[in-house]
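User: Modeling request: complex.
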Amino acid sequence: MDFDYSDDQKFLKDEARKFLGGRCPPAVVRGVLDDPARSYDAPLWAAVAEQGWLGAAIPEAHGGLGLGRVELCAIAEELGRAVAPIPFASTVYILAEAVMAHGTEAQKAAILPRVAAGELIGALALSEGPGVLTPSALSARVEGGKLSGVKIPVTDGDIAHVAIVLANEGGRPGLFLVDLTGPGVKRETLESLDPTRGVARLSFDGAAAERLGAAGEGVDLVQAILDRAAVLLAFEQLGGADRCLEMAKEYALGRYAFGRVIGGYQAIKHKLADMYVKNEVARSNAYYGAWALNASTLQENGAPELPTAAAAARIAASEAFWFAAKESVQVHGGMGFTWEVDCHLYYRRSRQLSLVAGSPRLWKERLVSELEKKNAA
Amino acid sequence: MDFDYSDDQKFLKDEARKFLGGRCPPAVVRGVLDDPARSYDAPLWAAVAEQGWLGAAIPEAHGGLGLGRVELCAIAEELGRAVAPIPFASTVYILAEAVMAHGTEAQKAAILPRVAAGELIGALALSEGPGVLTPSALSARVEGGKLSGVKIPVTDGDIAHVAIVLANEGGRPGLFLVDLTGPGVKRETLESLDPTRGVARLSFDGAAAERLGAAGEGVDLVQAILDRAAVLLAFEQLGGADRCLEMAKEYALGRYAFGRVIGGYQAIKHKLADMYVKNEVARSNAYYGAWALNASTLQENGAPELPTAAAAARIAASEAFWFAAKESVQVHGGMGFTWEVDCHLYYRRSRQLSLVAGSPRLWKERLVSELEKKNAA
Amino acid sequence: MDFNDSPAEAAYREKARAWLVEAAAAHRAEHGEPKANTPEHMAAAKAWQARKAAAGYACITWPAAVGGGGGTPIESVIFGQEEGKAGVAYGYFTIGLGMCVPTVMAFADTDTKKRFVSPAVKGEEIWCQLFSEPAGGSDVAALRTRAVKDGDDWVINGQKVWTTGAHYSDFGILLTRTDPDVPKHKGLTMFWIDMRDPAVECRPIHQMSGGREFNEVYFSDLRVKDSQRLGEVGQGWQVALVTLMNERLAVGGAAGPNYREVMELARALPGEDGPALSNDAFREKLADWFVASQGLKFTRFRTMTALSRGQTPGPESSIGKIISANQLQDLANTAVEMQGEYGILTGPEAVAGAAFQQSLMWAPGLRIAGGTDEILKNIIAERVLGLPGDVRVDKDVAFKDMPTGR
Amino acid sequence: MDFNDSPAEAAYREKARAWLVEAAAAHRAEHGEPKANTPEHMAAAKAWQARKAAAGYACITWPAAVGGGGGTPIESVIFGQEEGKAGVAYGYFTIGLGMCVPTVMAFADTDTKKRFVSPAVKGEEIWCQLFSEPAGGSDVAALRTRAVKDGDDWVINGQKVWTTGAHYSDFGILLTRTDPDVPKHKGLTMFWIDMRDPAVECRPIHQMSGGREFNEVYFSDLRVKDSQRLGEVGQGWQVALVTLMNERLAVGGAAGPNYREVMELARALPGEDGPALSNDAFREKLADWFVASQGLKFTRFRTMTALSRGQTPGPESSIGKIISANQLQDLANTAVEMQGEYGILTGPEAVAGAAFQQSLMWAPGLRIAGGTDEILKNIIAERVLGLPGDVRVDKDVAFKDMPTGR
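Assistant: Request completed. Predicted assembly structure:
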């Protein structure tokens, strides 16, 4: 039994924490939060690229470090802990992972080295409006390699170079790689609940679109991409949840009421114990997700455990982060409700991370559908 | 604004509490609980009849007291508080109310005076098996006034004289009054979670059945009957929930741990505060239900508020009683888990009251359907 | 068990309604509908308050001699309902007339009362309440703002926080520490102060919701006369309790979308299979929210019934904020998640004018302001259920010796 | 991050499995599958324990010199897994070998150890733990069973409660109060006792679930020798802490139906519109239960990993019972309510052999036994998160002067 980070992975994680402690303190996050003109922290992005993290899981042949997915999970956990204001998820968990899993050799060669080098920011353009996007409601379309339609919102769409876009071609949904710097693309930055991450409306009018993966398989491809991203996002959520518990604990140990630290009152103690329990459930599910994700990259036909493991990891991590974020504000009392205390950075990010890549409710439905299939088989 | 019991109603309620304190202490409840041969306490039933409670809401012309439904609610609250082991709900909330609302003059004359006099116990026979009984699955049927089929379980079916039975006639569901003491009826007493209430399997083979209400309207009639019963049951649940809170509070004030009464620890204090909040929400919804139920008996076409008010009362009361019952055990610690302490009488009854007359989940669906209708109109 | 006014109440309601129809029309003709937080809005509010006072509809339960209406609590509630329906209610006077001026009336000398009560009733002067401090929080009495006797004056230094309306208030009641050598509750003294004094500085607090509705208030050598003292020296906590006793009546329910709005949203938004409203899990939540909202509404009716019967309302009214603040957070979060990735948007293209997103960012504050969830549960447990208070280690310790972590 | 055994672990597992296949077959041939709670079942259990001891598979982590296996914690876990799969695990020895005998080993003299350890390992004698009292509960040290010195003997009077296996145990370790004039924790002394002594009376407790699995144990002038003392006079609490340190390892997860069983139920039962499994609200609950169950399973894997790496497992294992006991209650209740009115039935016609109804009546006990939800959260908050303990008013008070309400 070896169900934990290895010593090497722990070392990588410790180094990542030190690095982000220096390069991504709350002041850096607030630099993006407070400046409507900025959607991410470019110096941090460059520094992260220099660390090799963008290509951590990209094969050496394509300019990456060729590490496993568990190493990437360790980095994700630390990025979440630091609420890093960079398009790491869009670029690494989604674009790079999608291209590695579903891209042609030419696409891999074109995209992966540039991701690893920090030259390319990615985005996933699915949503066209509020609510669940059902296949029949999909209106973006590709004809003769040209994309038309509007995608809103697109996380990191205002700064991305390449987007993966879901659109109909010949009446069936497919995925397409679109160069956002080319003609036929209009972007508008939008306001959001979490200003430390960029969001945009992308309007396409004849933009060049190159198919990613099999034609007409867009729905399944999206799910496969989200399964992988869900595991990595779960680690970001877990990192954030752990930090919320820490902050709440530190505050509770330093704040006095009625002559005692508030951390000595059962109402606070049990709230923090509840956070701890949720975080540990999330951690254990995330570890299993990491195992399944890694296994899926090592086996010809992926890992059959991944859909269930990814869903469980995502559900547990979303629940843990939301609970920790909102109750950390509560433990901080009036101070927690101010802009100057960092609680709201995590409160906002917990919402951002739950809203991208499918809400927890949709993942619960996916999980139960998978259980039904297994159970029937 | 006069949204509370009146002074007269309060007096009635106080008297009922005193009466039940003397005639229905826990020892009487345990007398039924511990004896598999007994399904109810016959002396208590007779005493309750003598008080006039069985006919409280029955018109004087039919041998009742002719009081309003709010008075009946006050009695129900006290019966719930005392976990009275008698077929009051089946007989009064269901049989008598159903006959008053949907019976012919002849049926009223035949049944109501006997109910008021304590000579007739009622039952409602809907269920034919586990899960939701959908109209298409209904298998009991009436042909030529003769009923065949099996109903399981029927609350108080082992001691009732008359049952209201849901059965198909001419392919459409209807309601029927069936004399359980007549030929063609077989009953078997069954074991249940709450042995202080009787449950039976009723097998009909050509039993005489007389239609109650319009032909083919069985589904709507059942719902109308349950709407009324739900309000009255909510008061029983509320009475039980209040008693659980009281018991937990008394225990918490008398039990010491680590040199202090456990009622001084925040974990216990907040648990009891949560109970209080749920009970008050239940009380306020129950009062509105009482108003709507009473109004529905005073107006030609019933009260349009009743379905929503009954659902809300039932949902809030079910939630409050379940929470209070299970957390009262928890507050009592190891003692709460013993047979000798009364907690489990309430724990059992809370389940019994949630299972009869439709589970809370079904009532939530009914409530939202009603809200949709209103909102659309 | 009904919702009808008694004959006397119905008559009062009829009279109030008739007055309101005419008065509101006249008021609107003069002032229009100015935007909130503008000088015009404040001017309109003051004019409306003056109009009410002239007609006996301001401070309805106060004696006519001080400018009030000489009426009953239930009449006050009835007027409030009708005023709400007439659409001309302003919030600027709630804290002053609900909490501060009653304290002045209870503890000030005759001249002071004469000077302040009537102008406040007429809306000419606005009051704020200066109790909370960064070091206080739930433990209000742990405050540190110092008042030091200097001849016939007191010199005050320190900081208050979360003061509603400090920037537009004319006067305030201020709780200070005058003796740090005695236990916490015994060294406090209350004053009224002039908020326009240059030694008083208001700074808006930047909240996590982005807004700046509350203030920090700083005192730098603020001099007040001993005659501004309310109650005896060292009796400030007893005075504050009188103020806080009135708080419950002054704090309203949670504003923001309720089950109705989220139901409309769910009807309009696509779910996996038909509108989001068709999802059973959402429907169960919706039912729970409806039941809780109805529970609060009818609990208020029970409170009104007690008033109507001339009784003191029971403790049932204390359940309101615990339920409504948590429900707002859950409801807003559900509504935002239901929008999917689109739920992140808060700009002009946001769903329902970003009302759910705003509530999501406001709800954490609601769970804290006016008593945290935890303090309110303590209150229910202790005052309603009669359970003992927590072990107090600060009762017999001089304030200056109390551990504070600093 | 994988689930594979290390090479050494794999080899051990292979060896254990091979032995188990043969041993279980031989055991079954001799003893069959006797019904639980019969003398035959007990005899089989003792025979199986003896067989394990002979092969070095009993008390795997104990030295071979006392009859143990001389192995590692991870080997013990591996054997437990394989033994479970082989279907021949018995529970009679868990408390004795997990908690009582380790206490004897830590505190008894050489002769006593020689007398008791080996027979216990071989399953010849069974031990129970006599700590809990009606007056104790969560506050174990508040116990009242008195031991009074009489010559070279001690005379014991009092009552214990919730003693698992008292009626089939041969010996027990008994925590008593020997000095009521000193503070609670300082006046306790531990003894081992002979459960067959006529001065010891076991009475089964009738539980709310209907069963009688636990006991009250009464002592009426029970005489024990001073040589039966474990640890010094007045040091009983320190001895008990050693016993209780081993408790966590001895307490298993919640038995009873899990998400899989309730999913099967929901597939079979009719709901409003198709099977109950098609209801979204139920599906969300099912997902939550699955996620929590997986969380506990993989948390156990993390604990095993620490053992496998030769480390001490972290505190994460303490989350188990809080989650599983509450989940069992919720899951059972949902399953029962899903059956509608039929859910009340518990006889032969009940759904799934009334398994859900039984769990519903058991779950309240699980939330209390071995530490209530509230005590376990205190433990997480204090031992894992490092938050302070509650204010203790009983530390410096003589036991006899402590308030008890009686």
